[in-house]
Amino acid sequence: MRHTSPPVRGRYWPAGRRVFTRPRPQADISLPVFSDLRAAWTGRIELQANALVPLNVYLSDDAGPLADKVARYGGSLGAVVRLSGLPNHPVLPQHDAALTRLFRLAAERALDVDLHVDETDDPDSRMLREVARVALRERFTGRIVCSHCCSLALQTDEYIDATLNDLLAAGIDIVSLPTVNMYLQSRQAGRTPRWRGVTLLHEMKSRGLRVAVAGDNCRDPFHAYGDHDMLDTFTQAVRILQLDHPFADWLTTATRAPAEIMRLDNDDSIGALAVGGRADLILVRARTYSELLSRHQFDRIVLRMGRAIDTTLPDYRLLDDMN
Ligand SMILES: [Zn+2]
């Protein structure tokens, strides 16, 4: 059995991992490969590219060429919103300068923005509100999605309230990563975790923000488990975030909301069922949410364009050369 040791608490990149800090050669390598894969999987998996780079890139001459390449390949502009070597609090002029450049480069090329923000248990990490503040000041009209946003759950009620107002004003969508963040946050050897690591989806949704659940890591140093299964992600999200009693329309966090955030909702009812739609759906042996969420549903039937596809899972040995 392969064992991956968990990342060091409070650090985004685990020690020893190659850090993607130089976009120029990496973007030239990754984007053409991505483009080929996207073409190969057309009609089966919707793939969108995001330039997930350290925020420092937007303080360098690499930012413009990177944005051009992202535009050429139909991706979105992104960043892990922290500057290496600097704390996330207080907000520094360099944070403002980097985010301003990011939003301007995106606006000039009509790109959407996808940011990984405040993935930490440090309550002083307040980049989420800074993102909203810069987006509002720049009058950015593209789509903005912020994921993680963990530290918000550890901040004061007053600060949370003000942040939610700013997020709503800036039109920012939120993605929570319940499995990944519960795995990483509050992790210290020999110490039982005290919180679940997730952001404030209940408060955000009731405020009118669009919210989704997802995972950005699967069997790697950031999350040791997972199988890229959105039904499993939703099942665990229900437990971790208490999306039940009532279940209400929380299922949309794994269906319609991500489709809308990815701008797929205009394309033949992706993420929703509709008469005359394309019949992409999952059939399960369950009559209620309790039955749905209590079994793994490995015997599910997956329809693509109305036809059942082969859902046989690959043997783990076929994945060995990817480890
Ligand atoms: Zn992330």
TrEMBL record:
InterPro entries: Amidohydro_3 (IPR013108), Metal_Hydrolase (IPR032466), Metallo-hydrolase_Enzymes (IPR052349). It comes from Paraburkholderia solisilvae. Residues 84-285 form the Amidohydrolase domain. PANTHER family: CYTOSINE DEAMINASE. The gene is codAch2_1. Pfam families: Amidohydro_3. This is Pterin deaminase. Gene3D superfamilies: Metal-dependent hydrolases. NCBIfam families: PRK07583.1 (NF005759). GO terms for biological process: cytosine catabolic process. One of its GO terms (molecular function) is isoguanine deaminase activity. Its EC number is 3.5.4.11. Keywords: Hydrolase.
